[in-house]
Amino acid sequence: MRVTREVPVQTSPSALWTLLWDVARIVECVPGCAEAREIDPGRRYTARMTQKVGPIGFSVALDVTVAQAEAERRLVLDARGRDPAVGAEISMRVSLDIEPRGGGSLLHIDADGRVLGKLGALGHGLIERKADEALAEFGARLQRIASEPRC
Length: 151
Fold this sequence. Notes:
Layout: E1 2-9, H1 13-20, H2 23-27, E2 33-40, E3 44-53, E4 56-70, E5 74-83, E6 88-101, E7 104-116, H3 124-147
Antiparallel strand pairs: 1-7, 2-3, 3-4, 4-5, 5-6, 6-7
């Protein structure tokens, strides 16, 4: 499964880069992300994702590692996890590329993943639609949070 999206964000590449590393704020952007925690800042994180795809609900503890980081330009994350209750196994690579655009930024998101087990048996089309919906929601939330003034 592969989904891509471009998200215009009304903030500078520098401010967007800082936001992408702010775990507490970025969790608010990710649909179904119940929690996230830094294990080794800038290198390794954990997160819990809870979603429903078709008739199957699942909760996956993810181990997230930073595969590549080029300040204010590119961030690549690898995530892996398993929900033993439904026999779902997920692995994903998410690339986030920041491009200056006018007075703001354009965030290119490329998510490439595999879903195995009962969840994977639901079919590629259904899983891809759910992933595309989640990416659209992520983009909308990111735009909102990036435009909020910080206290």
